[in-house]
């Protein structure tokens, strides 16, 4: 496909099939022209001066083309609102979703975009209009959805020290109600915002992170100000747009020239914060691995098998066999009374198959030693951290295997994993 494909083209959105001849698009994010509200000043414009049926049929034409140029893993995000006509509310988002279902688009999610700022008045029988719909469709069931990239991991802090097993180590899934302010006058220039109502940059970024990686192709058949496509460019995605008004296209190109460099840097900095997310995940997994040992101890005790002297915990790089599990952790168990070994092994199988241990996302590899010599030869030479059977978020001692005698009665968990957190710091 020619290189010039990746720009905003001055063409009718109903004709993008002439432009994009095979499926290359990963995501389409767009807000279609309003129905009979705004005159964009072009004969081919969709919406103005049409009947509602003709309007919907034109949208079907556009989104049929979009469907055909979308990869099987691709998605479509449409920002769309209801409107008033002849004293009634017209449920455009739902009419639209029903119409394009026939093309093959599968409705996956309905998100409410809370706009936070809104006009201070409303028509009779209505509340103030403070939200729009974001409809998400997929081309197939096998669509791309990188939920880990948009998780809210800062919000967990308060809880994860004590309950690392309860929260996803990459953070909380965002709610289906999004809050993004409408852009205010700024770098886009005076009058610009009023004219276009561009979509908020952060909202576009969220959708792009969910659905694409660098180099993927983003489409907006009703580009307008080019808010979607400039964000795509800044996030190192390729983009294709169609728009009737050449002035808008020119404005977009100027904007990209003026701000592209700065915005790209901003994006790169943001990418670095992803590293924090990785560090966070690693910490949560360490907390889980250690707490698992402590919980295991307690459960054996509850089963009247108080025969375990020490547990050595070791994280591995192995991938778990079951996809819903997150890590494989080795637990080396020193059993006090060797004659109880079989009983302990049997009890272990029962305990780990049930909550709470089954909820830790851990695939445990148990190994047992019947005496201290067998146990110690399997331990690393270097520094070990000792944790108690009451708390595994801060170590109590640092020691080597030769100094095991220094352990007090409740210091029963050993590991090379170092965690030293103070619960109060995370209140
Ligand atoms: C609601 S605006 C899009 C605003 C855009 N999402 C933004 O952030 O600025 C709809 C745009 O569709 C354009 N448009 C209307 N009919 C069109 C058609 N048949 N082909 C291509 N663009 C069209 C209008 O010129 C207008 O810029």
UniProtKB/TrEMBL annotation:
Pfam families the UniProt entry points to: N6_N4_Mtase
EC code(s) of this entry: 2.1.1.-
InterPro entries in UniProt: DNA_methylase_N4/N6, MeTrfase_CN4_CS, RM_Methyltransferase, SAM-dependent_MTases_sf
Gene Ontology MF terms: DNA binding; N-methyltransferase activity; site-specific DNA-methyltransferase (cytosine-N4-specific) activity
Catalytic activity: a 2'-deoxycytidine in DNA + S-adenosyl-L-methionine = an N(4)-methyl-2'-deoxycytidine in DNA + S-adenosyl-L-homocysteine + H(+)
Keyword set, alphabetical order: DNA-binding, Methyltransferase, Restriction system, S-adenosyl-L-methionine, Transferase
Protein name from the UniProt record: Methyltransferase
